[in-house]
Amino acid sequence: MKRQIRLRAVIATSVALVAAGTVTAGVGIASPEHKTAERRPPAAAAKPTPKEIAGLFDAWNAALRTGDPETVAARYAPDAVLLPTASPKIRTNHGEIVDYFEHFLQKKPVGEKVRSVITVLDSNSAIDAGLYRFHVTDPATGAKKAIDARYTYEYEKRGGTWLIVNHHSSVLPAEG
Description:
Low-confidence stretches: 2-7, 9-37
Radius of gyration: 28 Å
Number of helices: 5
CATH architecture of the largest domain: Roll
Number of domains: 2
Order of helices and strands: HEEHHHEHEEEE
Shape: globular
Largest sheet: 5 strands, mixed
Structural class: alpha+beta
Helix content: 25-40%
Number of strands: 7
Mean pLDDT: 84
Strand order of the largest sheet: 3-7-6-5-4
């Protein structure tokens, strides 16, 4: 008899807890904290700072200085689009991006930003657009020159890594 009374009390308590939403089916009794945690959306990843996004150019520029086209191309997403300064061809895959840098790196380019406008879109995407200057060396003559260009880098964080998904660069036109 006592056992029946205890069983009814357990059942009644369980029914009340299910009705109150503090029990998850098949899991057992949940604490009020557990209930609250279940209803909260997952914490959003923090947005990167403009300084962090600016550092992505520095890492790309450092990759240029390695002289290795694969190292540079590794900074790009597999489906990236590259509209380069020194080629009329649109590069839309890893092999084409490597091919571009095989030729461009022969000039030993070193980039420097002149003006940068960074827009952080969300925790996984940002745009860096502005003006940069490349110091290049003619491989045949050794002559050095500076090339001013406009740029846009669109970055996405994929699998925890920031990658370039779109890069456009064009020679800065003369004012007029």
